[in-house]
């Protein structure tokens, strides 16, 4: 009898030890602990490192800041998607995307460590336009690794997770390096100064390839910019009742009656190269604030990062392709030539904000914001309130002395996109037709991506 009791005690003890051993390997570290069990702090912290690098950069990083968001988003998504049973890899769905590394069957992974490794590698490899990158990357990567190594308490799990994230990033970065055939092209030299066609305000007909040929960039999603572009109005400067004439006349009239609120909106979304986020980088700031205010788990943050970045990136490609196809003049050209002509440059009509060095139609920021908002709406819903404080603390003078640019609050992503689009008219740099059709183009691009790319398993 005593032997049976002792035997049972030994069995129970052995079973308990086995259970505790298994539990240690399946605590918040592995496949049994899914990606949605973790907060999205790792994503927010890496966005926090990237934003100072994007702000007022020492050298231009090109026309498409959405490119950084897209590739970083796909990298972090692929680094954590093995812990998301309802989701799948984007391999086979994105243009020329390579097959991703695989996790080891039955082995435990810590998904924040995977994400940290992937975003550290992507940031270091992509953000090469400023010398501040390496130090910023190393500091955050080391800090998070120290925290995660302690949380995990298992060197094998930590090293395996870190290696997997790095392997994903290596594949994604190599893929990113093949998307821009325009990088070796000679500058586009303009030759036609016919009325109605765009000509740079600085009168330099040579347009760098990175700008003139951005529309030839490989899109993330095949067919995402197919059938999304409309057409400009037919040129007519002689008939004051024509839609073309009045499209530009509206901008001239508006410039004479700008209100304080219209001026503030135009300046807030100007995104200048100095003391600002040029080339659409401000959308990355807004995305970070949305994650902070909505506070989704790591799985939804990675999903949103990838989908929103892809939509922003492809919408920019489509907008630039259309711009350099139609080559429509900017408001300053038509107004100075037709509506308020003068041979004296001192009294030439000027827009409220500086005109970017590319054609009018379609409006870039209208396309950017349209795609950005449409993508976010599919993830978080139609009626999401959030506050954009991207330029809070930055001073501006609108005629009443220096004041804080402050924040804007919105009740939906569409309301946010519409505000950005109309701000380009207030700024005097786009016609209404360019703005409205640009918004539609961005939305259609995001819709194409939504219909073509399946993040969730069928």
Descriptive overview:
With 458 residues, this protein is mainly alpha-helical. The protein is 52% helix and 3% strand. Strands 1-2 form a two-stranded antiparallel ribbon. Strands 3-6 form a two-stranded antiparallel ribbon. A two-stranded antiparallel ribbon has the order 4-5. Strand 4 (395-397) and strand 5 (402-404) form a beta hairpin. Helix 3 runs antiparallel to helix 11, helix 9 crosses helix 14 and helix 14 runs antiparallel to helix 15 (432-452). It is elongated. The termini are far apart. Mean pLDDT is 93; it is low at 1-30.
What topology, given as strand order, has the largest sheet? 1-2
Using DSSP, what is the number of strands?
6
Please state roughly what percent of the residues sit in beta strands, choosing from under 5%, 5-15%, 15-25%, 25-35%, 35-45% or over 45%: under 5%
List low-pLDDT spans: 1-30
Radius of gyration: 26 Å
Work out the helix count: 15
End-to-end distance: 58 Å
Which structural class fits the helix and strand makeup? mainly alpha
- In round numbers, the mean pLDDT is 93
SSE order:
HHHHHHEEHHHHHHHEEEEHH
- The amount of helix comes to 40-55%
Anisotropy-based shape:
elongated
Major sheet attributes: 2 strands, antiparallel
Helices, strands, pairings?
Elements: H1 2-25, H2 41-54, H3 66-80, H4 111-126, H5 133-152, H6 155-176, E1 188-189, E2 206-207, H7 209-212, H8 243-255, H9 260-268, H10 282-294, H11 298-326, H12 331-339, H13 364-380, E3 386-388, E4 395-397, E5 402-404, E6 408-410, H14 413-426, H15 432-452
Antiparallel strand pairs: 1-2, 3-6, 4-5
